[in-house]
């Protein structure tokens, strides 16, 4: 299952205003802002979602066209570890070893890799250890 998707934008303020208005009729609102000191690629990321869960992210941390990010939700932390190992052995590049990312939430356990084309792919488990 897709957990969340992120895209790079060129103007944070402009895109923030656009998505706030465009997504409101869908019941999707801004839920979280993560500053440059906490993102994997530096820059600011803004998460939109519903029911307390951000699932659509915009960020000024990469160039437009290069900031594509896909995260897959998995059942347990062992699957995150297995994803990371398999992706590296398949030719991916490490972009964040398996581990907790408590700045997202206390049980956010994830690993990040770049695929051969530079797409940031993540596996994430939201369940307690």
From TrEMBL:
According to its UniProt record, what is one Pfam family this protein matches? Glyoxalase
| Domain of life of the organism encoding this protein | Bacteria
Looking up SUPFAM superfamilies in the UniProt record yields: Glyoxalase/Bleomycin resistance protein/Dihydroxybiphenyl dioxygenase (SSF54593)
Residue ranges occupied by any VOC domain in the UniProt entry: 1-126
Query: InterPro entries from the xrefs?
Result: Glyas_Bleomycin-R_OHBP_Dase, Glyas_Fos-R_dOase_dom, VOC_core
Protein's UniProt name: VOC family protein
């Amino acid at each position: 299952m897709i957990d969340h998707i992120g895209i790079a934008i060129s103007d944070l303020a402009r895109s923030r205003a656009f998505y706030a208005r465009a997504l409101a009729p869908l019941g999707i609102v801004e839920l979280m802002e993560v500053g440059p000191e906490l993102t994997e690629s530096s820059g600011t990321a803004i998460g939109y979602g519903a029911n307390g869960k951000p699932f659509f992210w915009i960020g000024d941390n990469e160039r437009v066209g290069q900031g594509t990010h896909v995260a897959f939700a998995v059942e347990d932390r062992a699957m995150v570890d297995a994803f990371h190992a398999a992706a590296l052995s398949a030719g991916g590049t490490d972009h964040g070893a398996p581990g907790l990312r408590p700045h997202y939430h206390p049980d956010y356990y994830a690993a990040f890799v770049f695929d051969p084309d530079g797409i940031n792919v993540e596996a994430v488990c939201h369940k307690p250890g």
